[in-house]
Design a protein that fits this description.
- The protein is mainly beta and 123 residues long.
- Helices cover 0% and strands 48% of the residues.
- It contains no helices and eleven strands.
- It has strands spanning 3-7, 10-12, 18-25, 33-39, 46-51, 57-59, 68-73, 78-83, 92-99, 112-113, 117-121.
- Strands 2, 4, 5, 6, 9, 10 and 11 form a seven-stranded mixed β-sheet that branches. The chain has a four-stranded antiparallel β-sheet with strand order 1-3-8-7, with no helix packed on it.
- The radius of gyration is 13 Å and the shape is globular.
């Protein structure tokens, strides 16, 4: 079975940091583009960052530029989302997703999804 599992979410004060981890099982992560998405209740899921198999990064949100970084560790089937200087507007459920093609902000381009991890930013 092919699975993605996110972890690392939690509650943090504004200005704090979190590192989300996406672990893949049942398939080799090497040949997939991995995207991080987030969703707030009542809103559409939005793309945040993506890293392709060549480690090229696509940033889909100007609001996270210079605060969020994405990286991958293929040997351990992991992709990370480092989030610094968190703001209340970053609060959402964060999902990782794997796709066979190049990075895309379109959710339909991704074949596998994790269950999501909640990030809460509040004082």
């Amino acid at each position: 079975q092919l699975h993605l599992v996110e972890s690392g979410g939690g509650s943090v004060q504004p200005g704090g940091s979190l590192r989300l981890t996406c672990v893949a099982s049942g398939f080799a992560l090497d040949y997939y583009s991995i995207g991080w998405f987030r969703q707030v209740p009542g809103e559409e899921r939005e793309a945040v960052l993506c890293i392709d198999e060549d480690n090229t990064v696509a940033n889909y949100l100007d609001s996270v530029k210079d605060r969020f970084t994405i990286s991958r560790d293929n040997a351990n089937s992991r992709v990370y989302l480092q989030m610094n200087s968190l703001k209340p507007e970053d609060q959402a459920v964060y999902y990782c997703a794997a796709g066979n093609y190049v990075c895309s902000p379109d959710t339909s381009e991704y074949d596998f999804w994790g269950q999501g991890t909640q990030v809460t930013v509040s004082s």
